[in-house]
Design goal:
This protein is an alpha/beta fold. The chain contains 27 helices and 18 strands. Helix 4 crosses helix 5 and helix 15 packs antiparallel against helix 16 (332-352). The radius of gyration is 26 Å and the shape is globular.
Length: 651
Amino acid sequence: MNIETAFAADGPLATAIPGFAARPQQLEMAERIAAALKDNGVLVAEAGTGTGKTYAYLVPALLSGGKVIISTGTKTLQDQLFNRDLPTVRAALKVPVSVALLKGRANYVCHYHLARNLIDGRFQNPQDAVHLRAIGRFMEITQTGDKAECPEVPEDATAWMYATSSRDNCLGQECPDIKECFVAAARRAAMEADVVVVNHHLFFADVMLRDEGMGELLPACNAVIFDEAHQLPETASLFFGESVSTSQLLELARDTRSETVAAARDCLDLIEATRKLEKAARDLRLSVSTDNARFGFAQMEDNKPFQEAVEILDTELAEFGAIVETQAERSEGLANCLRRTQELQEILARWIKPENTDWVRWVEVFSQSLSLNATPLSIASIFKRQMDGHPRAWIFTSATLAVGKDFGHYCRELGLHWVEPPIDTAVWGSPFDYPQQAVLYAPQNMPEPNSPEYPDAVAKVAFPLIRAAHGRTFVLCTSLRAMRRIHELIADDLAREKLDLPLLIQGEGSRTELLERFRRLGNAILVASQSFWEGVDVPGDALSVVVIDKLPFAPPDDPVLAARIENMQKNGRSPFMEYQLPRAVINVKQGAGRLIRTERDKGVLAICDPRMLTKPYGKRVWQSLPPMRRSKLESEVVAFLEQLPPPASSG
């Protein structure tokens, strides 16, 4: 079967899938992907919302006859592909292709660690003990060990930390429970399958870095397809860097203590050493008084408590390692704790005295933990090296990769501009009728985006649109402070005008819960920040307005960004035009993509930032957006919204 037959009006997809209608863009994209798969080529493809890019890559992947890895941006999309899209397309095409789902090891129950921690019985709270017993019951009946299949225990429950393994504490082939291991079973299935669905984090951690015994999966495959490929540069930076966190150290101390109780109970020095290591880790976190912040190394040089805490940690880790070494032969678990200790010592030593000047050192502080990070200034050469060697096809696709039709920024970040023969690029616009379906609103007379009254001005722009649309609005903010202020002002306006519209704010529940409420209510307003800019799908009448407060430029004081800017300036390049602006454009396109999800959707995208109108680069932003009708007048936009059918829930 060829691609044209598969997508034909009377073909297998149209026959088997209710409501399926082939689009010219989808067919073209599928044919280009099929050609790249056949020739081991590299294709970078932007496909606008509604193109149907999932089927456009699944059909050629299933018909290719080779082994294909499909990597997605999130576990949610991974589950959707594996449980819904792949079975649908496979059944329609009637191809005998085996498929497997592979997640990171932290998603699977670990027999060894669950048993150890049930015996140890030291938990942070009573709820952990209840959850851990529930996980024990789940383990006895599950076929996969995947925690997503255990509804009794929330996915973010701390108890999972006691019931799963990490790269650090997994015993691998030395584990006494290796025959029953769920991770090993999932990996065997992945090795045998024709199509394997992973996520970007797992791809880099398990496949590219070959850190988890998965080195054989990539060499065995004929093609890698990245969906939501705009996330790759960020994810790759994370995995090609190094870090030591206080959480890792506390976990090492906890695991060593439970291994000591099981295999070296007489070594009281080691129990004492675990307590000292825990104290050193906690003191390091306490040496920085703020939380949820990032600092460059230079900013921390004058922080004496921090510098002293790092020195003490270095000393305690060395002493801890020396004691673990004396006991390591007594069990596989203790031998593994020694290996982890030595790895952390090496990373900490490199952080204190760097070997490589092309890396940036920085500190990230969370409410409960602190991490010391080192990130390469550029990942281009590292990523390109991973692509060399065994010939295979590489497909990168997303709704947002280009600035206009230019992929230069994306290709430079991943080193794709060095690939020989040259890569193929393509942009397929959305099939939606944007001039009829949507209006891009750029309000006039806005204050400067960094002025104190700016959030108030955004709320003032948003409210008439909320009123005209009877709710049904996302307000997407670039900072948490602005989000809270705008939410407060909208709440005041609703109360003053006695409008009974549900007002939600990010943080009231999980992202999934908030989205579910928003869809169900049908007339809600959601004020949110960065995490709702992408991967959020609200088709239909529940969403008619998206307000973006500012162009989402990354904060220039971010330590990694600041170091990259400085490095580009040294090399005579323009960091703003080559790096900061393209990233902001791609983020705006992601936010804008929330609005029109189907051929029937209608709505308004309001971008409040005056730089859209006043700065020369503003043109590059709106030219990269879908071809919506444009307006600067509130009255025109309100009139457009008032013509929309009212939401069902508001009567």
